[in-house]
């Protein structure tokens, strides 16, 4: 369950990328990426520049913020690459690599712990054949944990994309996952 | 004519099944569904209510096929007779379950905005004096006297002053801020406006954790409504309030890390002093307070500081909002004056243990809170008693663990949490939490020794004394109290 804390790494290039399923240029293609990043950053520009909100806006649009975008982002915001890479590597929700089509987060907060989130997580790890922070083969799901969803009174909690499920039993998981292709 | 049914639109109520009910009944012409906030009696959710001759009638744990019974009025329970709710003293949460979160007129009809009106009749000094009389202490965890902080910010010089609501409710086991943001957002805005008037602030921010998307959306809608109603103004000047979302870092709930994050930087703790009230956001005087604290303030102004001071115990005035979770039978939100014992809260409101569970320990105050065994349940819930016992009330989270809990694994879970969430600025927390986790993993694997337990104790003392903020400073408490109260479990795992 160790969280990824080392700097900006690019994960396995086999990961399916959200934006590259059709004939659009790859998000990391030099010039195209440059323009796209600038466009997105222009929409959230502030004075002084806000690196975190800029990265969140990029992730919202692109699905992740790849390490090779850092110099472009830094230049566009007028800050150093170290500052951008520092923020990017700090926050658990910022991703360097494209996640699977759906992100499953299992809440590991204390109320969920008391109510058996460990069993829920183990079940998902087995079913998805993926460990925490990993994407299952084929790219359908990325498995993740979170420290509290604030749903403690209806725990344990699993969040799939934006859908929050409470009082989750391991036996219900397979059916729940069927709704996400 | 369609029958009005009240159904909560709170995230947890939806997760419990309210969303499915709303979907199932949405095209019924004989039903008009009103989406309210939740009463916080989550063990009864999804709960459906309709108007009765003497207040609302409720049906509990409803499924779609229960509709005929509800429509015919059979089998319901008057809300005012539900013991979980009837035994509470609700002020800050008085509207919950009653009103539609974004209905400004309902908010006003039930006394909303009267605190702000009172504040407009007072000078900034008089507002702060009212808070001094109230003896309100910050509800986020630090329990610092609110008036004191406001006084410092009021007297501090700055080109700009800010009011920041800390909606980064990261303590696992707590959800009252989420409920306020989703269920009674105007109360938060009113509290922030009163603060802004008192200290002379020109701008407000709500730093909302990313894990609360529904709360952020609801609050943005409330800000829009308040703006349309021309409420976001002070002395003829606009007082804009903006919602800014975080990115999953627990330590950003610490006030200085929060400010760093609000500025878009790494959410790393700042050394204090200077305190944010002197030099906060962009170096300007800033009040950072928890959502619940701001939500408590309007009624202090409308009812008077001495009203607030008349509730609770000597050093803990007013009501405390407790949030029950874990293996209690009745998880949910409880607002009561300070002073009840843990035992009373767990029995009277928690309803004892969930079926099949036997009590083992209760943790109060989130992932950094101490564990109490059966023998610790006489503890009164107030700041002084907890401080005396070396514990914290924190943000009011109460999580109950049952007989199946492996205390060694739980202790490892706590240390792993701190190791994950440490911002890395100070050595005791950054390295101590990793070493602590390693020691506990060693014990768990059966290769720990008595020396490891002594080492944990020593490490814990160092982290308590030398960490920059409460994350490192409090992290040892749940671990050391687990060892203190359940020593046999740890010893049985040691290498012979």
Largest sheet of chain A: 4 strands, mixed
CATH architecture of the largest domain in chain A: 3-Layer(aba) Sandwich
User: What is the percent of helical residues of chain A?
Assistant: 25-40%
* Strands ordered across the widest β-sheet of chain B: 2-1-3-4-5
Element order of chain A: H for helix, E for strand: HHHHEHHEEEH
Strand content of chain A: 5-15%
- Quaternary form: heterodimer
What is the residue-averaged pLDDT of chain B?
A: 97
CATH superfamily of the largest domain in chain A: Glutaredoxin
In the CATH classification, which architecture of the largest domain in chain B applies? 3-Layer(aba) Sandwich
| Low-confidence spans of chain B | none
CATH topology category name of the largest domain in chain A: Glutaredoxin
Q: Main sheet of chain A: which strands, in order across?
A: 2-1-3-4
Q: Helical stretch count of chain B?
A: 21
Sheet/helix structural class of chain A: alpha+beta
Task: Tell me the count of domains of chain B.
Answer: 4
Largest sheet of chain B: 5 strands, mixed
Q: How many strand units of chain A?
A: 4
Spatial shape of chain B: globular
**Integer average pLDDT of chain A:** 86
Number of domains of chain A: 2
Secondary-structure blueprint:
The complex is a heterodimer of chains A (181) and B (496).
Chain A: H1 30-43, H2 51-62, H3 70-77, H4 81-90, E1 102-107, H5 110-114, H6 117-128, E2 141-146, E3 158-160, E4 163-165, H7 170-178
Parallel strand pairs in A: 1-2
Antiparallel strand pairs in A: 1-3, 3-4
Chain B: E1 3-8, H1 11-25, E2 31-36, E3 48-52, E4 55-59, H2 67-72, E5 77-78, H3 83-86, H4 104-109, H5 114-121, H6 124-134, H7 146-155, E6 162-167, H8 176-183, H9 185-199, E7 203-208, H10 213-228, E8 233-234, E9 237-238, E10 241-245, H11 255-262, E11 286-290, H12 291-303, H13 305-309, E12 312-313, E13 316-317, E14 319-326, E15 332-337, H14 342-349, E16 359-364, E17 371-372, H15 383-388, E18 397-402, H16 407-421, H17 427-444, H18 450-466, H19 470-474, H20 476-485, H21 487-491
Parallel strand pairs in B: 1-2, 6-7, 6-11, 7-10, 14-18
Antiparallel strand pairs in B: 1-3, 3-4, 4-5, 8-9, 12-13, 14-15, 16-17, 16-18
Helix pairs in contact in B: 5-9, 5-12, 6-7, 6-9, 8-9, 8-10, 9-12, 16-17, 16-20, 17-18, 18-20
